[in-house]
Amino acid sequence: MEHDIADSLRTRRVLVTGADGQLGAALCETFAGDDVLPFTLGDWDVTQPPPAVGGLDLVLHTAAWTDVDGAEADPQSAAAVNVGGTQHAASLGAPLVYFSTDYVFDGRKREPYVESDGPNPLSAYGRTKLHGEAAAGEGAWIVRSSWLFGWTSHNFVRTMLRLGAERDEVAVVDDQRGCPTYVGHLAEATRAIVELEPGVWHLAADGECTWAEFAEAIFAEAGLDCRVRRITTAELGRPAPRPAYSVLGSERPGAPQLPHWRDGLRACLERLELLPD
Ligand SMILES: NC(=O)c1ccc[n+]([C@@H]2O[C@H](COP(=O)([O-])OP(=O)(O)OC[C@H]3O[C@@H](n4cnc5c(N)ncnc54)[C@H](OP(=O)(O)O)[C@@H]3O)[C@@H](O)[C@H]2O)c1
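Above: the input record for the complex with NAP. Below: its predicted structure, written as tokens.
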């Protein structure tokens, strides 16, 4: 009994890979009540076997090759990180959370993708992330999320804030629909998910929009006077194909509900101290 109480009071040792990425940084904050080991690329290149770190209670594996277009040109290197790196994370032997993506789907549906929908990735990045799901192993939590943004690293919100301050107009794709998800909200949901059964979970923001609608919301919320010119994916001409529709929903009972993407946007701008009075 005393042992049980002591055990439940013990802080967990939680290793976070990609700790200086946008999701990794949010997870380090959200799990701050635990004993967090924040591992950056400099601490451990996940394409290499893991260093000796002692006993762990949880591994939050966010480290990934996230350059979607770059993966098209160099799929082997992307696979070394996203598949090989995940095998190495699993070899630590602790309960593992692997973060996957809406880009495992082909985007042909017109209603939210749920966990039992069959994946069919269009891009090299999507294929490596799907193989990474298998590499994470049966007992892992596979958290699929989408269109992440946060206060660090490269992301659409930070790019639009920069362009919106420099230009009168930006051209943004209006024929891809998804759920822009704030990493702070995903990190909170991750804390909830590790109390639930492992397996595939879809955790993305409530609501949906196109990139152009998202850009308009960013300019409106940040008080930037910049127009959005709506263009097609074909006009943008990026190397990697993206799903036209990749809204995620969960069919699993008890799945954590994330706030609406617009609330996530406001939370992110607040964090960046960019909300006008
Ligand atoms: N971004 C999205 O829209 C999105 C959507 C759905 C799912 N996801 C998934 O969510 C996770 C987190 O994404 P994110 O947006 O937070 O990514 P991110 O900001 O690009 O961060 C990725 C992190 O991984 C690190 N990394 C790259 N290669 C590594 C290696 N070989 N060894 C160790 N660390 C390495 C990067 O370090 P450096 O910065 O030093 O290179 C960076 O800290 C990823 O698994 C991603 O696939 C992302």
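Notes for the reader.
The pocket of NAP is lined by residues 17-18, 20-24, 40-41, 45-47, 62-66, 81, 85, 99, 101, 129, 145-148, 153 (CB under 6 Å).
The longest strand covers residues 96-101.
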